[in-house]
């Protein structure tokens, strides 16, 4: 797993961004940027060169699912590993995310081990 | 029949009056029973109107529900502040880790990780409280709508349900499920694996 990969974390709760950033730091990911909704994330993705997106679902004005669809529809971004970390745990949410091309799905509340495991899996397939 | 709370005659009252006006001569048993039913229904409607007026709906929409939502917003703000204080302290502890012997440093790192994990409660509780606030706003809108139909002055505020979802992502954004209805990480992993 390449720990120098630039990672974009997306969540409308600043506290959650801080928690994920700190957990990623413990996993030795130092190159981490933040966005607070899908639109801001999409702009950063198009301007940057991120190797992993970790996004919440429930945000305005653009949700994580809609961000995922935009990423998969973008020729340059479509292969970017995308992990959804969300409190949305209904089957229909997981199915919709999978159909939209999510790389993995973590339900909140989550632990550091789950985050590490999912990152390793999606990075192995990247 | 009672006049209710001064609002225009309701359709049932008008119907009873129309029936009475159209009747002449002796009533049949069926007609008398129908008339009695209509009169009873009219009295029920008038009683309901009086009870709704006595609810002081303006207090609910102008005071009680806004106060409740303000209190809930304050809960979110206070827990966010407290959580950030905890995270500040954790980051200080992590900064000390290199100065500790390896075993103690690893123990400290493990403990800090557990605190980070636990601090995600603030996100979950914030989302749950947002759902409660939206439910209160929906109740407020519906109470005001019922009230205005019965002639009370309260205008119906916009309901949270009025903002229809525009995308699939918005339509499926329901927030946290209650524990009994929520899927576990293991169940989600199995569901994802079923696509492979």
Question: What are the salient characteristics of this protein?
Answer:
heterodimer, A: 126 residues, Rossmann fold, five-stranded parallel sheet, B: 196 residues, mainly alpha, 2 domains, 7 helices, 70% helix, disordered N terminus
Please provide a brief summary of the model.
The complex is a heterodimer of chains A (126) and B (196). By secondary structure, chain A is an alpha/beta fold.
How many domains make up the 3D coordinates of chain B?
2
Name the pair of protein chains with the most residues at their interface, and give those residue counts. A-B, 41 and 37 residues
Quickly count the helices of chain A: 5
Low-confidence stretches of chain A: none
Spans of at least 5 consecutive residues with low confidence of chain B: 1-6
* CATH fold name of chain A: Rossmann fold
Instruction: Assign an overall shape of chain B.
Output: elongated
The number of strands of chain B is: 0
Structure classification of chain B: mainly alpha
This entry's quaternary arrangement is heterodimer
Outline the biggest β-sheet of chain B: none
Q: What is the helical fraction of chain A, as a range of percent?
A: 40-55%
Q: Would you list the SSEs of chain B in sequence order as H and E?
A: HHHHHHH
SSE run of chain A: EHEHEHEHEH
Amino-to-carboxy terminus distance of chain A: 10 Å
Question: How confident is the prediction overall: mean pLDDT of chain A?
Answer: 95
Topology, number of strands of chain A: 5
């Amino acid at each position: 797993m390449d720990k120098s990969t630039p990672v974009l974390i997306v969540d409308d709760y600043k506290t959650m961004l801080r928690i994920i950033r700190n957990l990623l730091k413990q996993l030795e990911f130092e190159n981490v940027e933040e966005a607070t909704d899908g639109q801001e994330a999409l702009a950063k993705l198009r301007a940057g060169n991120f190797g992993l997106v970790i996004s919440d679902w429930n945000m305005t004005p653009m949700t994580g699912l809609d961000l995922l669809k935009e990423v998969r529809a973008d020729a340059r971004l479509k292969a970017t590993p995308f992990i959804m970390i969300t409190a949305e745990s209904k089957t229909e949410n997981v199915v919709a995310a999978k159909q939209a091309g999510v790389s993995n799905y973590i339900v909140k509340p989550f632990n550091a081990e789950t985050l590490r495991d999912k990152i390793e899996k999606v990075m192995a397939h990247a | 029949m009672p006049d209710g709370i001064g609002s225009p005659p309701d359709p049932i009252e008008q119907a009873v009056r129309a029936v009475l006006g159209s009747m002449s001569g002796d009533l049949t048993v069926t007609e008398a029973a129908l008339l009695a039913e209509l009169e009873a229904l009219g009295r029920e409607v008038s009683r309901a109107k009086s009870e709704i007026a006595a609810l002081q709906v303006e207090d609910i929409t102008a005071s009680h529900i806004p106060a409740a939502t303000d209190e809930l917003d304050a809960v979110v703000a206070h827990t966010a502040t407290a959580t950030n204080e905890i995270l500040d302290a954790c980051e200080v502890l992590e900064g000390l880790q290199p100065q500790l012997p390896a075993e103690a440093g690893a123990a400290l790192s493990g403990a800090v990780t557990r605190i980070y994990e636990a601090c995600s409660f603030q996100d979950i509780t914030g989302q749950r409280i947002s759902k409660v606030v939206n439910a209160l706003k929906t109740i407020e809108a519906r109470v005001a709508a019922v009230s205005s139909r019965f002639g009370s002055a309260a205008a119906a505020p916009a309901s949270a349900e009025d903002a229809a979802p525009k995308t699939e992502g918005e339509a499926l954004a329901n927030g946290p499920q209650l524990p009994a209805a929520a899927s576990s990480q293991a169940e989600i992993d199995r569901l994802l694996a079923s696509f492979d």
